[in-house]
Amino acid sequence: MALAEAFSERKPDKLRALGVVALNGMFDEMDAVGVLRQAASEILPGDLAIVSSFGADSAVLLHIVAQVDPSLPVYFLETGKHFPETLEYVETLKKHLGLRNVIALHPDAKDIARFDPNGTLWETDPDSCCHIRKTEPLDPAVAQYGGWVTGRKRFQTRERGVLPHFELTSDDRIKVNPLAYFTDADVNQYKREHGLPEHPLFAKGYKSIGCAPCTSVVAEGEDPRAGRWRGLNKKECGIHFDFNGEIARPMLGAEHNLFKDGAFIADPFRPWAEGDDAASVRYTHVPVKTFLEHREAFLANPHPLGLLVVPGDKVEDVAEDLGRFASVAVSFPAFTDGRGYSTTRLLVERYGFQGEIRAVGDVLTDQIPLMRRCGINAFVVTHQPTRQALVDGALAEVAIFYQPVGKTEVPVGTRPYLRRAR
Predict the structure, then answer these.
(1) Does 170 reside within a domain?
(2) Is-above-0.70 flag for pTM?
(3) Does residue 265 sit in the same domain as residue 338?
(4) How many structural domains are present in the chain?
(5) Alpha carbon 147 to its chain's center
(6) Which residues are annotated as a binding site?
(7) pLDDT (tens digit, 9 = 90+) per residue, 307-337?
(8) How much of the chain exceeds pLDDT 90, in percent?
(9) pLDDT tens digits, residue range 268-287?
(10) Second label for 234, Cα 20 to 30 Å away, from 111, 333, 364, 384?
(11) Is the same domain home to 316 and 210?
(12) Nearest-CA neighbor of 347 among 383, 323, 379?
Protein backbone atom coordinates (compact mmCIF):
# COMPACT_ATOMS: atom_id res chain seq x y z
CA MET A 1 0.00 0.00 0.00
CA ALA A 2 1.33 3.48 -0.88
CA LEU A 3 2.09 5.89 1.94
CA ALA A 4 -0.56 8.32 0.73
CA GLU A 5 -3.23 5.60 0.83
CA ALA A 6 -2.17 4.48 4.28
CA PHE A 7 -2.77 7.94 5.69
CA SER A 8 -5.76 9.04 3.65
CA GLU A 9 -8.37 8.04 6.25
CA ARG A 10 -8.70 10.50 9.14
CA LYS A 11 -10.19 8.30 11.83
CA PRO A 12 -8.78 6.95 15.11
CA ASP A 13 -6.86 3.81 14.24
CA LYS A 14 -4.14 1.95 16.13
CA LEU A 15 -2.56 0.97 12.81
CA ARG A 16 -2.36 4.64 11.88
CA ALA A 17 -0.55 5.37 15.13
CA LEU A 18 1.85 2.51 14.41
CA GLY A 19 2.31 3.93 10.91
CA VAL A 20 3.56 7.21 12.36
CA VAL A 21 6.02 5.31 14.54
CA ALA A 22 7.20 3.54 11.39
CA LEU A 23 7.59 6.86 9.57
CA ASN A 24 9.88 8.13 12.31
CA GLY A 25 11.93 4.97 12.01
CA MET A 26 12.14 5.25 8.24
CA PHE A 27 13.03 8.93 8.08
CA ASP A 28 14.81 9.46 11.39
CA GLU A 29 18.18 10.04 9.70
CA MET A 30 16.78 12.07 6.79
CA ASP A 31 17.59 15.78 6.50
CA ALA A 32 14.92 18.45 6.83
CA VAL A 33 14.44 18.88 3.08
CA GLY A 34 14.01 15.13 2.66
CA VAL A 35 11.47 14.92 5.50
CA LEU A 36 9.34 17.70 4.05
CA ARG A 37 9.64 16.34 0.50
CA GLN A 38 8.47 12.90 1.64
CA ALA A 39 5.57 14.44 3.56
CA ALA A 40 4.48 16.62 0.65
CA SER A 41 4.92 14.11 -2.17
CA GLU A 42 4.49 10.62 -0.68
CA ILE A 43 2.68 10.77 2.65
CA LEU A 44 0.15 13.59 2.24
CA PRO A 45 0.28 14.83 -1.36
CA GLY A 46 -2.00 17.82 -1.83
CA ASP A 47 -3.12 17.53 1.80
CA LEU A 48 -0.41 19.41 3.68
CA ALA A 49 -0.20 22.99 4.97
CA ILE A 50 2.61 25.00 6.55
CA VAL A 51 2.13 27.11 9.67
CA SER A 52 4.73 29.85 10.18
CA SER A 53 5.11 32.66 12.68
CA PHE A 54 7.54 34.53 10.39
CA GLY A 55 9.69 34.91 13.48
CA ALA A 56 13.43 34.90 14.06
CA ASP A 57 14.03 31.35 12.74
CA SER A 58 11.18 31.07 10.25
CA ALA A 59 13.32 31.75 7.18
CA VAL A 60 14.93 28.31 7.54
CA LEU A 61 11.71 26.32 7.31
CA LEU A 62 10.31 28.59 4.61
CA HIS A 63 13.49 28.24 2.55
CA ILE A 64 13.01 24.47 2.73
CA VAL A 65 9.37 24.89 1.70
CA ALA A 66 10.45 26.95 -1.29
CA GLN A 67 12.84 24.16 -2.36
CA VAL A 68 10.17 21.46 -2.07
CA ASP A 69 7.19 23.37 -3.48
CA PRO A 70 6.81 27.18 -3.28
CA SER A 71 3.08 26.82 -3.94
CA LEU A 72 2.41 24.93 -0.69
CA PRO A 73 -0.08 26.87 1.47
CA VAL A 74 1.70 28.80 4.23
CA TYR A 75 -0.57 30.07 7.00
CA PHE A 76 0.46 33.11 9.02
CA LEU A 77 -1.50 34.05 12.15
CA GLU A 78 -2.00 37.77 11.82
CA THR A 79 -3.02 38.31 15.44
CA GLY A 80 -3.23 42.09 15.25
CA LYS A 81 -0.49 42.24 17.90
CA HIS A 82 2.63 41.67 15.79
CA PHE A 83 5.58 44.04 15.60
CA PRO A 84 5.45 46.17 12.44
CA GLU A 85 8.83 44.64 11.62
CA THR A 86 7.26 41.16 11.54
CA LEU A 87 4.66 42.25 9.00
CA GLU A 88 7.45 43.73 6.87
CA TYR A 89 9.38 40.48 7.20
CA VAL A 90 6.44 38.51 5.82
CA GLU A 91 6.64 40.51 2.60
CA THR A 92 10.45 40.28 2.52
CA LEU A 93 10.45 36.47 2.75
CA LYS A 94 7.61 36.06 0.26
CA LYS A 95 9.60 38.02 -2.30
CA HIS A 96 13.03 36.57 -1.46
CA LEU A 97 11.89 32.92 -1.44
CA GLY A 98 9.26 33.13 -4.15
CA LEU A 99 6.49 31.82 -1.88
CA ARG A 100 3.28 31.93 -3.88
CA ASN A 101 0.61 30.94 -1.38
CA VAL A 102 1.01 32.80 1.94
CA ILE A 103 -2.36 33.14 3.67
CA ALA A 104 -2.97 35.47 6.62
CA LEU A 105 -5.42 34.25 9.27
CA HIS A 106 -7.15 36.93 11.34
CA PRO A 107 -9.05 36.58 14.63
CA ASP A 108 -12.82 36.91 14.54
CA ALA A 109 -13.71 40.59 14.89
CA LYS A 110 -16.70 39.67 17.05
CA ASP A 111 -14.47 37.77 19.49
CA ILE A 112 -12.10 40.72 19.72
CA ALA A 113 -14.97 43.16 20.27
CA ARG A 114 -16.52 40.96 22.96
CA PHE A 115 -13.46 39.82 24.90
CA ASP A 116 -10.65 42.23 24.09
CA PRO A 117 -12.22 45.54 23.08
CA ASN A 118 -9.35 47.54 24.59
CA GLY A 119 -6.62 45.25 23.29
CA THR A 120 -5.31 44.56 26.80
CA LEU A 121 -6.43 40.96 27.38
CA TRP A 122 -2.80 39.84 27.05
CA GLU A 123 -2.05 41.64 30.33
CA THR A 124 -4.61 39.79 32.44
CA ASP A 125 -5.12 36.52 30.57
CA PRO A 126 -2.50 35.71 27.93
CA ASP A 127 -3.88 32.18 27.50
CA SER A 128 -7.29 33.49 26.44
CA CYS A 129 -5.65 36.14 24.26
CA CYS A 130 -3.70 33.40 22.45
CA HIS A 131 -6.82 31.27 22.15
CA ILE A 132 -8.84 34.05 20.52
CA ARG A 133 -6.09 35.37 18.28
CA LYS A 134 -4.31 32.13 17.35
CA THR A 135 -6.05 28.86 18.18
CA GLU A 136 -9.55 29.85 17.04
CA PRO A 137 -8.43 31.17 13.60
CA LEU A 138 -6.00 28.30 13.01
CA ASP A 139 -8.25 25.34 13.89
CA PRO A 140 -10.65 25.61 10.92
CA ALA A 141 -7.77 26.32 8.55
CA VAL A 142 -5.76 23.20 9.38
CA ALA A 143 -8.95 21.14 9.62
CA GLN A 144 -8.97 21.17 5.81
CA TYR A 145 -5.73 19.17 5.68
CA GLY A 146 -4.57 15.74 6.68
CA GLY A 147 -1.38 17.21 8.10
CA TRP A 148 0.50 20.41 8.82
CA VAL A 149 4.11 21.45 9.15
CA THR A 150 5.69 23.36 12.02
CA GLY A 151 9.12 24.88 12.63
CA ARG A 152 9.47 23.52 16.17
CA LYS A 153 12.81 22.18 17.37
CA ARG A 154 13.91 19.96 20.23
CA PHE A 155 16.30 22.49 21.74
CA GLN A 156 13.68 25.19 22.25
CA THR A 157 12.04 23.93 25.47
CA ARG A 158 12.29 20.96 27.80
CA GLU A 159 8.83 19.81 26.67
CA ARG A 160 10.00 19.69 23.05
CA GLY A 161 13.08 17.67 23.96
CA VAL A 162 11.75 14.41 22.49
CA LEU A 163 10.05 15.96 19.47
CA PRO A 164 9.97 13.53 16.49
CA HIS A 165 9.79 14.33 12.78
CA PHE A 166 6.22 13.03 12.62
CA GLU A 167 3.46 13.22 15.23
CA LEU A 168 -0.07 11.87 15.21
CA THR A 169 -2.19 14.61 16.77
CA SER A 170 -5.19 13.93 18.97
CA ASP A 171 -7.55 14.62 16.05
CA ASP A 172 -5.68 12.04 13.92
CA ARG A 173 -3.78 14.46 11.72
CA ILE A 174 -0.07 14.21 11.05
CA LYS A 175 2.11 17.03 12.31
CA VAL A 176 5.45 17.25 10.51
CA ASN A 177 8.49 18.79 12.22
CA PRO A 178 11.33 18.88 9.62
CA LEU A 179 13.58 20.94 11.91
CA ALA A 180 13.04 18.80 15.02
CA TYR A 181 16.74 17.85 15.32
CA PHE A 182 18.15 21.29 14.46
CA THR A 183 20.17 23.02 17.17
CA ASP A 184 20.37 26.78 17.59
CA ALA A 185 23.80 26.63 15.92
CA ASP A 186 22.33 24.64 13.01
CA VAL A 187 19.67 27.30 12.48
CA ASN A 188 22.17 30.16 12.42
CA GLN A 189 24.58 28.28 10.17
CA TYR A 190 21.78 27.44 7.71
CA LYS A 191 20.76 31.09 7.53
CA ARG A 192 24.34 32.13 6.80
CA GLU A 193 24.98 29.43 4.22
CA HIS A 194 21.86 30.30 2.25
CA GLY A 195 22.06 34.06 2.67
CA LEU A 196 18.62 34.28 4.26
CA PRO A 197 17.40 37.70 5.36
CA GLU A 198 17.21 38.10 9.12
CA HIS A 199 14.15 39.31 10.95
CA PRO A 200 14.75 43.05 11.50
CA LEU A 201 14.49 42.61 15.29
CA PHE A 202 16.95 39.72 15.58
CA ALA A 203 20.00 41.99 15.68
CA LYS A 204 18.33 44.01 18.44
CA GLY A 205 18.30 41.02 20.79
CA TYR A 206 14.96 39.43 19.97
CA LYS A 207 15.85 35.75 19.51
CA SER A 208 12.31 34.31 19.55
CA ILE A 209 9.64 36.62 18.21
CA GLY A 210 5.90 36.44 18.70
CA CYS A 211 3.32 39.11 19.43
CA ALA A 212 4.84 42.44 20.47
CA PRO A 213 3.29 42.73 23.97
CA CYS A 214 4.52 39.26 24.98
CA THR A 215 8.02 39.36 23.46
CA SER A 216 11.11 40.93 25.02
CA VAL A 217 14.83 41.18 24.35
CA VAL A 218 16.96 38.19 25.36
CA ALA A 219 20.19 38.87 27.26
CA GLU A 220 23.51 37.31 26.30
CA GLY A 221 23.59 33.70 27.49
CA GLU A 222 19.84 33.47 28.08
CA ASP A 223 17.69 30.79 26.50
CA PRO A 224 16.44 32.10 23.10
CA ARG A 225 12.82 31.67 24.23
CA ALA A 226 13.33 33.43 27.56
CA GLY A 227 11.86 36.55 26.02
CA ARG A 228 8.48 34.94 25.35
CA TRP A 229 5.88 35.62 28.07
CA ARG A 230 8.68 36.70 30.38
CA GLY A 231 7.80 36.32 34.06
CA LEU A 232 4.78 34.12 33.37
CA ASN A 233 4.35 30.38 33.78
CA LYS A 234 3.67 30.08 30.06
CA LYS A 235 5.75 28.46 27.33
CA GLU A 236 3.39 27.94 24.41
CA CYS A 237 0.59 29.85 22.71
CA GLY A 238 -1.60 26.74 22.71
CA ILE A 239 -1.79 25.81 19.03
CA HIS A 240 0.46 22.77 19.59
CA PHE A 241 -1.18 19.84 21.39
CA ASP A 242 1.89 17.65 21.63
CA PHE A 243 2.09 13.91 21.86
CA ASN A 244 3.74 14.14 25.28
CA GLY A 245 0.84 16.18 26.68
CA GLU A 246 3.12 18.60 28.52
CA ILE A 247 2.86 21.65 26.29
CA ALA A 248 -0.93 21.59 26.33
CA ARG A 249 -3.47 18.98 27.27
CA PRO A 250 -4.52 17.15 24.12
CA MET A 251 -8.20 17.26 23.24
CA LEU A 252 -9.05 13.65 22.59
CA GLY A 253 -10.94 12.67 19.49
CA ALA A 254 -13.82 11.51 21.70
CA GLU A 255 -14.16 15.07 22.94
CA HIS A 256 -14.96 16.41 19.50
CA ASN A 257 -18.67 16.38 20.31
CA LEU A 258 -19.53 19.98 19.49
CA PHE A 259 -21.22 20.31 16.09
CA LYS A 260 -20.93 23.86 14.83
CA ASP A 261 -20.65 25.48 11.40
CA GLY A 262 -21.08 22.14 9.67
CA ALA A 263 -18.44 20.08 11.49
CA PHE A 264 -17.59 18.39 14.77
CA ILE A 265 -14.90 20.37 16.55
CA ALA A 266 -13.02 20.37 19.85
CA ASP A 267 -15.07 22.16 22.48
CA PRO A 268 -13.19 25.02 24.18
CA PHE A 269 -15.81 25.16 26.97
CA ARG A 270 -16.21 22.88 29.97
CA PRO A 271 -18.88 22.56 32.70
CA TRP A 272 -18.67 24.46 35.96
CA ALA A 273 -16.94 22.34 38.62
CA GLU A 274 -16.83 22.44 42.39
CA GLY A 275 -13.92 24.57 43.50
CA ASP A 276 -13.96 26.85 40.47
CA ASP A 277 -13.30 30.51 41.25
CA ALA A 278 -15.84 32.98 39.89
CA ALA A 279 -13.18 35.67 39.54
CA SER A 280 -10.73 33.67 37.44
CA VAL A 281 -12.52 30.78 35.71
CA ARG A 282 -12.51 30.82 31.90
CA TYR A 283 -14.26 29.02 29.03
CA THR A 284 -16.76 27.53 31.46
CA HIS A 285 -20.55 27.26 31.28
CA VAL A 286 -21.72 28.72 34.56
CA PRO A 287 -25.16 27.64 35.89
CA VAL A 288 -27.67 30.47 36.19
CA LYS A 289 -27.96 29.98 39.95
CA THR A 290 -24.19 30.11 40.40
CA PHE A 291 -23.92 33.20 38.25
CA LEU A 292 -26.56 35.03 40.26
CA GLU A 293 -24.89 34.07 43.56
CA HIS A 294 -21.54 35.51 42.44
CA ARG A 295 -22.69 37.99 39.82
CA GLU A 296 -20.27 40.79 40.62
CA ALA A 297 -17.26 38.47 40.55
CA PHE A 298 -18.30 36.97 37.22
CA LEU A 299 -18.89 40.40 35.70
CA ALA A 300 -15.44 41.53 36.84
CA ASN A 301 -13.85 38.33 35.48
CA PRO A 302 -12.02 39.32 32.22
CA HIS A 303 -12.10 35.85 30.69
CA PRO A 304 -14.56 34.37 28.17
CA LEU A 305 -17.51 32.66 29.90
CA GLY A 306 -20.64 30.72 29.01
CA LEU A 307 -24.01 30.34 30.73
CA LEU A 308 -25.86 27.09 31.43
CA VAL A 309 -29.66 27.26 31.47
CA VAL A 310 -31.53 24.20 32.78
CA PRO A 311 -35.30 23.64 32.99
CA GLY A 312 -36.69 25.78 35.77
CA ASP A 313 -34.20 28.61 35.30
CA LYS A 314 -35.60 31.99 34.34
CA VAL A 315 -33.68 33.66 31.54
CA GLU A 316 -35.32 36.90 32.63
CA ASP A 317 -33.15 36.86 35.77
CA VAL A 318 -29.96 37.26 33.70
CA ALA A 319 -31.37 39.23 30.76
CA GLU A 320 -29.35 42.37 31.41
CA ASP A 321 -26.11 40.38 31.60
CA LEU A 322 -26.50 38.16 28.52
CA GLY A 323 -23.96 40.25 26.63
CA ARG A 324 -21.34 38.99 29.07
CA PHE A 325 -21.49 35.47 27.64
CA ALA A 326 -19.86 34.05 24.52
CA SER A 327 -22.05 30.97 24.65
CA VAL A 328 -25.33 29.92 26.24
CA ALA A 329 -25.86 26.18 26.77
CA VAL A 330 -29.54 25.22 26.89
CA SER A 331 -30.15 21.91 28.61
CA PHE A 332 -32.52 19.28 27.20
CA PRO A 333 -32.43 16.65 29.97
CA ALA A 334 -34.90 14.35 28.20
CA PHE A 335 -36.38 13.96 24.74
CA THR A 336 -39.84 14.78 26.14
CA ASP A 337 -38.74 17.96 27.94
CA GLY A 338 -39.42 20.87 25.60
CA ARG A 339 -38.74 23.78 27.95
CA GLY A 340 -35.40 24.40 26.25
CA TYR A 341 -37.20 25.49 23.07
CA SER A 342 -39.00 28.25 24.97
CA THR A 343 -35.75 29.31 26.59
CA THR A 344 -34.06 29.59 23.21
CA ARG A 345 -36.87 31.64 21.72
CA LEU A 346 -36.69 34.04 24.66
CA LEU A 347 -32.94 34.42 24.15
CA VAL A 348 -33.28 35.12 20.44
CA GLU A 349 -36.63 36.87 20.02
CA ARG A 350 -37.05 38.81 23.22
CA TYR A 351 -33.48 39.52 24.27
CA GLY A 352 -31.71 39.53 20.90
CA PHE A 353 -28.83 37.29 21.99
CA GLN A 354 -26.49 36.87 19.00
CA GLY A 355 -23.77 34.62 20.40
CA GLU A 356 -23.51 30.85 20.32
CA ILE A 357 -26.58 29.02 21.60
CA ARG A 358 -25.90 25.33 22.03
CA ALA A 359 -28.13 22.40 22.90
CA VAL A 360 -26.76 20.02 25.53
CA GLY A 361 -28.16 16.86 27.09
CA ASP A 362 -30.47 14.48 25.28
CA VAL A 363 -29.86 15.84 21.77
CA LEU A 364 -31.22 13.48 19.11
CA THR A 365 -31.77 13.55 15.35
CA ASP A 366 -35.47 14.41 15.36
CA GLN A 367 -34.98 17.38 17.67
CA ILE A 368 -32.25 19.20 15.78
CA PRO A 369 -34.38 20.73 12.99
CA LEU A 370 -36.77 22.07 15.65
CA MET A 371 -33.88 23.39 17.73
CA ARG A 372 -32.46 25.18 14.71
CA ARG A 373 -35.80 26.84 14.00
CA CYS A 374 -35.75 28.29 17.49
CA GLY A 375 -32.23 29.68 17.09
CA ILE A 376 -29.85 27.02 18.39
CA ASN A 377 -26.69 27.04 16.26
CA ALA A 378 -24.46 24.47 17.98
CA PHE A 379 -25.08 20.99 19.38
CA VAL A 380 -23.21 18.78 21.83
CA VAL A 381 -23.92 15.29 20.49
CA THR A 382 -22.78 11.90 21.74
CA HIS A 383 -25.52 9.76 20.17
CA GLN A 384 -23.76 8.02 17.27
CA PRO A 385 -26.69 7.87 14.78
CA THR A 386 -27.33 11.57 15.36
CA ARG A 387 -23.66 12.35 14.82
CA GLN A 388 -23.72 10.47 11.53
CA ALA A 389 -26.90 12.22 10.40
CA LEU A 390 -25.29 15.60 11.07
CA VAL A 391 -22.12 14.66 9.18
CA ASP A 392 -24.16 13.34 6.24
CA GLY A 393 -26.60 16.26 6.25
CA ALA A 394 -29.39 13.70 6.54
CA LEU A 395 -31.74 15.51 8.91
CA ALA A 396 -35.45 15.73 8.25
CA GLU A 397 -36.86 19.12 7.25
CA VAL A 398 -39.75 20.72 9.10
CA ALA A 399 -42.13 21.93 6.38
CA ILE A 400 -45.37 22.03 8.40
CA PHE A 401 -45.66 23.56 11.86
CA TYR A 402 -48.38 24.64 14.22
CA GLN A 403 -46.41 26.93 16.49
CA PRO A 404 -44.73 29.82 14.65
CA VAL A 405 -41.23 31.08 15.29
CA GLY A 406 -40.43 34.76 14.87
CA LYS A 407 -42.78 37.25 13.26
CA THR A 408 -43.07 35.89 9.73
CA GLU A 409 -44.10 32.25 10.06
CA VAL A 410 -47.79 31.40 9.85
CA PRO A 411 -48.93 28.12 11.43
CA VAL A 412 -51.02 25.69 9.40
CA GLY A 413 -54.80 26.15 9.64
CA THR A 414 -54.77 29.68 11.04
CA ARG A 415 -55.75 33.07 9.69
CA PRO A 416 -52.63 35.24 9.58
CA TYR A 417 -54.56 38.49 9.73
CA LEU A 418 -55.98 37.49 13.12
CA ARG A 419 -52.56 37.10 14.69
CA ARG A 420 -51.78 39.72 17.27
CA ALA A 421 -48.75 41.89 16.64
CA ARG A 422 -45.96 41.33 19.13
Answers:
(1) yes
(2) no
(3) yes
(4) 2
(5) 15
(6) 129-130, 211, 214
(7) 999 999 999 999 999 999 989 999 999 888 8
(8) 41
(9) 788 999 999 999 888 899 99
(10) 111
(11) no
(12) 323
